Amino acid sequence: MGRAPCCDKANVKKGPWSPEEDAKLKSYIEQHGTGGNWIALPQKIGLKRCGKSCRLRWLNYLRPNIKHGGFSEEEDNIICSLYVSIGSRWSIIAAQLPGRTDNDIKNYWNTKLKKKLLGKQRKEQQAQAQARRVSNNQQKQDLKRETENLVVASEVINQVPYWSSSEFSSVPMPVVNASFQHYGLNNQTSLGSMIVNKLEGITFSNDHHQQQQQPYANACEIPSLQDQAFPTMVNQVTVVSNENNSGTYQPSNIFQGFENFPSDFCEPVCVNPQQMEAFNYGMESMDMTMSNGGSTNTTSTESTSWGDMSSLVYSPLVSDYERCRQGIPQDHVVAFEECKYFGMQMQ
DNA sequence: AATGCCATCAACCGCATACTT
DNA sequence: GAAGTATGCGGTTGATGGCAT
């Protein structure tokens, strides 16, 4: 047996609300409150609407102090930061923005903010790709000069780089640590494809010697990457540390059989698009961090720890949220989150 | 002027959880 | 504790308006 319908569908009006309906609902709630029963409310005031519809209309449109549109830069930052931190918990995000509704924020994110960020990201990636091309040309010239001087054995010269695209011949794998869990990126397919997907944006020193010997402190593991999208991927991704005698990053152990990288992987194989978005947004900032400050003398922990993503979170806000939540007895958490509708501050 | 396409946003739907009996 | 019901949430849909052709 299915769920009992919340209202008589046949007898209920759907679609946009008329000004008369709005007026009825608003005046009733202002005088009497909701009475704690949304289902019964429309009958009381003679509205042919579903209780849920009334509730939504009130919360998203009729209740006092609602703001529509005109999101400020600061609000954008807050939304982005919280999205990175907690994902699409729109009601919680709305709680941090007095006068904003979850629906409004959700729409704003989906229609504007997301595109704005992705556009920004694309722009930066293009700039980075351009920079890499310049860098690679320089590398090729350097290499040419060296080979002329050192008379390198022909088999070494002719060795085909693992990454067929020259752009990726020097890209090290980022170190993955437990903080990935924080972002809910526990799906191996998502994880793997996102790493690959985002490698394009990671830039390192223009010095090819450093590129060849990018130091990493830790080995990292991506266990059980056995998804179809990664047919022959090895189970363990090892990045050799400087302490290791070889001191060399060895990409040939990774993603074996993906000579067409990155084009094969640029198509995200992400189960949860929201995680992908959040991750992309986070990686965008990480890219910037790495490009700006992490290009030289970076340690693995500095340059590639996913924990660095915390830097792009609007820290006071998120930490306040977490602190508030953690500081509240479990019984009151719900009340805390419900305060959003009235822009109330927890003491 | 007519048409098609696209962006926006209000509203709906279904699911999960909380609450009540 | 189980079943029924109400509420809240997030994903999706559909109506609408603006713009390009």
TrEMBL record:
Residue span, Myb-like domain: 9-62, 63-113
InterPro entries per record: Homeodomain-like_sf, Myb_dom, SANT/Myb
Alphabetical keyword list: DNA-binding, Nucleus, Repeat, Transcription, Transcription regulation
Signal peptide (from-to): none
Cellular-component GO terms for this entry: nucleus
Cross-referenced PANTHER family: MYB-LIKE DNA-BINDING DOMAIN CONTAINING PROTEIN, EXPRESSED (PTHR48000:SF67), OS09G0431300 PROTEIN (PTHR48000)
Protein name per its UniProtKB record: Uncharacterized protein
Protein source organism: Glycine max (Soybean)
Gene symbol of the encoding locus: LOC100812816
